[in-house]
Amino acid sequence: xxxxxxxxxxxxxxxxxxxxxxxxxxxxxxxxxxxxxxxxxxxxxxxxxxxxxxxxxxxxxxxxxxxxxxxxxxxxxxxxxxxxxxxxxxxxxxxxxxxxxxxxxxxxxxxxxxxxxxxxxxxxxxxxxxxxxxxxxxxxxxxxxxxxxxxxxxxxxxxxxxxxxxxxxxxxxxxxxxxxxxxxxxxxxxxxxxxxxxxxxxxxxxxxxxxxxxxxxxxxxxxxxxxxxxxxxxxxxxxxxxxxxxxxxxxxxxxxxxxxxxxxxxxxxxxxxxxxxxxxxxxxxxxxxxxxxxxxxxxxxxxxxxxxxxxxxxxxxxxxxxxxxxxxxxxxxxxxxxxxxxxxxxxxxxxxxxxxxxxxxxxxxxxxxxxxxxxxxxxxxxxxxxxxxxxxxxxxxxxxxxxxxxxxxxxxxxxxxxxxxxxxxxxxxxxxxxxxxxxxxxxxxxxxxxxxxxxxxxxxxxxxxxxxxxxxxxxxxxxxxxxxxxxxxxxxxxxxxxxxxxxxxxxxxxxxxxxxxxxxxxxxxxxxxxxxxxxxxxxxxxxxxxxxxxxxxxxxxxxxxxxxxxxxxxxxxxxxxxxxxxxxxxxxxxxxxxxxxxxxxxxxxxxxxxxxxxxxxxxxxxxxxxxxxxxxxxxxxxxxxxxxxxxxxxxxxxxxxxxxxxxxxxxxxxxxxxxxxxxxxxxxxxxxxxxxxxxxxxxxxxxxxxxxxxxxxxxxxxxxxxxxxxxxxxxxxxxxxxxxxxxxxxxxxxxxxxxxxxxxxxxxxxxxxxxxxxxxxxxxxxxxxxxxxxxxxxxxxxxxxxxxxxxxxxxxxxxxxxxxxxxxxxxxxxxxxxxxxxxxxxxxxxxxxxxxxxxxxxxxxxxxxxxxxxxxxxxxxxxxxxxxxxxxxxxxxxxxxxxxxxxxxxxxxxxxxxxxxxxxxxxxxxxxxxxxxxxxxxxxxxxxxxxxxxxxxxxxxxxxxxxxx
Length: 965
Ligand code: SF4
What we know:
Layout: H1 14-22, H2 29-35, H3 42-45, E1 68-74, E2 83-89, E3 92-98, H4 111-114, E4 130-133, E5 136-139, H5 142-160, E6 165-168, H6 175-188, E7 193-194, H7 197-200, H8 202-212, E8 229-233, H9 237-240, H10 244-254, E9 259-263, E10 275-278, H11 284-298, H12 303-309, E11 310-311, H13 313-320, H14 325-332, H15 336-348, E12 352-356, H16 358-361, H17 366-379, E13 390-392, H18 399-404, H19 420-430, H20 434-439, H21 444-447, H22 457-462, E14 476-480, H23 490-499, E15 502-507, H24 511-515, E16 523-527, E17 536-539, E18 545-548, H25 561-572, H26 575-578, E19 584-585, E20 588-589, H27 591-601, H28 612-620, E21 683-684, E22 687-688, H29 710-716, H30 724-734, H31 750-757, E23 768-769, E24 803-805, E25 808-810, H32 813-821, H33 824-827, E26 830-835, H34 845-848, H35 851-856, E27 861-864, H36 866-872, E28 879-883, E29 890-897, E30 905-909, E31 914-916, E32 919-920, E33 935-936, E34 958-964
Parallel strand pairs: 6-7, 6-14, 8-9, 8-12, 9-10, 11-23, 12-13, 14-15, 15-16, 26-30, 27-29, 31-33
Antiparallel strand pairs: 1-2, 2-3, 4-5, 4-16, 17-18, 19-20, 21-22, 24-25, 26-34, 27-30, 28-29, 28-34, 31-32
Bound molecules: iron/sulfur cluster.
């Protein structure tokens, strides 16, 4: 159990002593469990412990004579954002305790968080730059590495154009690192820049942004304590977001709330459910429409809420009508009566919160799934209120921030998109000439065209030149903080790696990319440091920003992301332009300055009020924030929400408190209130898209209204409220089209300030869209997975038609039809799904290199139902081959015989790599950097299939065959 040694900020703890004692020595499993403060099984089952269960333990003494400095940072694993308190002695991180005052984590850590200190002492880190020479990793200097990498990039730029380089960023970056990396790609001249959100929640972002305006969790982990009913679909937070479980379980207990878990697998989270609904993978829409069928049938929908705040619900009704209990059961396997119970629980215990994660999003219908969930919550009137919401659990520690700052092939930072107006906005902020910026790109068309996403980069390497909509195929890839084994279709990925002319990996660990292919030359590894060795902010899943202090200097020869990005920009010849407004100390850009540039530019998401000074003040005064509302009740941050969750409007001096709950009309906009965003116009086919009679508290416009521009201000006569300086800036931006300057492009932020003064939201007040006419399926419809076990359903519920997007073809219907013709389901009779484990994070190279965590989970495995195992003659823990339907792919793993999965379903975790179709790749890692635990990658056997809106991969449902090995 975690141990609190003292009140307030904790000094040196029991974990510290154990870790220090273990440095460089073997540590037993028992020693780790005792030393790290974890009760065996406790973290796995419950994953975080309430304060009442914490007991006092033996204290450890400090290093004699050494001064101890205490610093705060944030766990670098998942998006919950638990505070880590580090004790530093002589520049070495020697002690760690969880942040007791953090309103989010409240003194808890899971196994991963409890062992993060290892990251800065781990001997398996990449220690210096490396280059692959004839298959051998050789040590080189930073100067040589940057010189050679830069020269090769410039050569590719000359011969193939800037779009032949793929810049793969990271959800492990700080916000400042994310923004800088996006800016680097822009100055290089390409939109081929992406990160992990593509493969976790790109469909969420697209789905919810297309419904009510912004692509993020609407409420918070803490607010779940206000929920009267908790519904979780496609998530397993007990393992993936362990500390969030304390809020969920408190909500369940405080409110005697029904806790409904919908999942193909009886997970460790489902073990806490009051109702468990097992579904066939890939049938989320039938199940959600099945719930909504009962809601409509019983008249449980919130009719007044729908009238005032929702567009297009009638179109949804027509679709939902088809999903009778009988049809839902036929397609999904869920009994109609059970879904009636779920619908009734949600309707009679309001508000209910709907929580989802990657089980729902990683599908070829991911965006449609998300839209269906959002519509269900709208029908029940659950969005924009305490205890309700769409609580979307993001993955990595800063995946929300990295998404917000445009590590995305389809947008510049803050979701401005790629149109000319967006580029001009950022050129103004960056003070670079728009024409110069345009000249960096192969063409204006490509400057404004979506790039190639991370799910498909290898297709763009392997394709014929004429099949990729850019001057040439991809020739080089630079990967910062991204595992190579989290993307489907690994056999093709390996071929893509082998064909690249240049591969650069910047990471604390070598990652799968470094070891999995047969490359002999043209690969470099740059030792990037962790976020504990630098400083900057990160945005957790609930949109709160937290500032992490640098705990120790980068270890060995590693450098932080800011420095590596600067060195590349300098070598590539545009550092002076790129860092015009960012102080560079030596070769290290100052993160506070980067955040100030973010504050000046990212108006559209409300990333403007969170100055470094305000964020640091919040970290210092964590104890002042309420543990449920997250609002400071006293102290210098009084009235503000913890971490100033976006939108935090206007200049920092305006003191906007942040928005704990999005679209909450019960509060004034200056107190965190809001309305649905008007981003799709004001009218559609004669029907108003603006809210009707619904507005946030204190609004002077007591009805819907469009987004604010100078034209709107003038019409209202509110332009007189602008200061002379604000008018000067607006005139400079607008020229002879001043009316077109909007709240998003007005760098004075005067339009925002005036809208707020009158109680209005700068982004307008619209209805949410139950029907989104710009999406392939305006109202979500069920489509069978590309590789479905139910051939009989394909003609009725086919995959979407083949199409092109993101510069590449997207096949769907033809691949599905081919699989039916070839009877793939007959040859591969199991449905394969995948997920996470509490011990590891993402691709797992970092956590599998951590000796404390490696102790806990030592083998890759596949869960198989006991009836199936018996039929196939497979014993628990025996080796089996799992075969996939493409590329003759196979993995050799241990069988975990369990009824967690139903008959006909196989589950594999996706954190493993280092084995390739039965063979160990340990020797391919640079010496001394191979993770302790290696295993086969689940994605070796996963298959083709992409969401049409975002090119999200279909990682959660395919087919496989299992045989004893
Ligand atoms: Fe908290 Fe997530 Fe880190 Fe665990 S992994 S300590 S839940 S932030």
